[in-house]
Write a structure and sequence with these properties.
This protein is of the alpha/beta class. It has helices at about 10-15, 20-25, 40-45, 55-60, 70-85, 85-100, 110-120, 150-170, 175-180, 235-240, 260-265, 300-305, 315-325, 340-350, 360-375, 375-390, 390-410; strands spanning about 5, 30-35, 50-55, 105, 125-130, 200-205, 220, 245-250, 275-280, 295, 310-315, 330, 350-355. The strands form 2 sheets. It has a 7-stranded parallel sheet, sandwiched between helices.
Amino acid sequence: MAKILVFTSPAKGHLFPVVPVLGELAARGHTVTVMTLPGAEEALRALGIAVRALPPALAEDTLHDWGKTRVGALLAALRSLTDRIPHEIDAIRTAVEDDQPDALLIDTTTAGAQTWAAASGLPWATWSPMLLPIPSRDVPPFGLGLTPMDGPIGRLRDTAVAQMSNLLWDTVLPRLNTARRQHGLAPLRHTVDYLAQSPVILNFTAPPFDDARSDWPTIVHQIGPGLWAPPADPPEWLTRIRRPLAVVTCSTEFQDDGALAQTALDALADSDLYTVVTAGALDPAGFRVPANARVVSYLPHDLLLSRAAVVVSHGGMGITQKALAAGVPVCVVPFGRDQAEVARRVVSADAGTGLPSRGLNTGALRRAVDGARACGPGAGRIAAAFAAAGGPRRGADVLEDHFAITAASAPVPV
């Protein structure tokens, strides 16, 4: 049995998806320690998973990308991710010295931890709870939510967008390559190339929600979404509601998306739905709440989705895939990050609707919600595909096979 050290970014949305795989590994007898935000110890201990807290320099950090233009937000996020590199390297080095693991599993957004892992000589792999922006000739460049376009015009568009995207991403390439050289690793040509440096990548999604690619590296294993949340009992007020639910979510990492929740509360005030808003990083007391609605800071979405007719979301991968895995259609209003890509896939799969945040008003949102409610069959198709993707068992199988093969081929220490 192996001792596995897991390193996450400071976001619950990056911890929760991987937990089912970690629980499966623990159930098979492996010793699993996850280095993550403090506060998850009790829930993970019940699954046989130990927790080691990220140091404050990481745990208290955010992407600092809200309230900016699309380009400004991307540059801010990239700077935040590369600012973390030295802190991640110090943290994972200390954890490995203390715990002496046999293998490492690293969050794909932690470039510093990946750099150290690649140079460590230990077997390692990464996981991504997000859509992976690894380039492919089969899909448009990642970031804008572009619809695939065939022919010379489509190729010209994609080439131009890819060049501009690399210019933006590569603003942090010198910092990334400095860290790589310091650890004896070859420099990368483009920043995005670091995403495909791992020997194995678990990606918590699957076609047909995500696009199929004919030219992606075989290291990518799409196993469907991770659907774990800390266990909880339904609140008493929820058991009294008889209407179908509209579940409205804001980001758990502050993104200033309160306008979406308030607009949804107003737009659905005279509907047949009961609206439940999970405010995430926002103050639940800051909303005007009609009679057919409730606003809470947090509630596990699995308590709501079995009764939901629709989910209205900023387009976070966690809630979007949880909704679709339950066969619930989604109305996505993207505010930033990868949310335009999530919205495009929801629409392409006929599993819901998308509405640009700049067009957000009560009338437009009500029409988008009504349109999404008609997309139940598409959401059902995605649910079936997710269930067939293999899930935690396949993820654990992939990691066991990889770690065993790598360990067997590694030189024996002398």
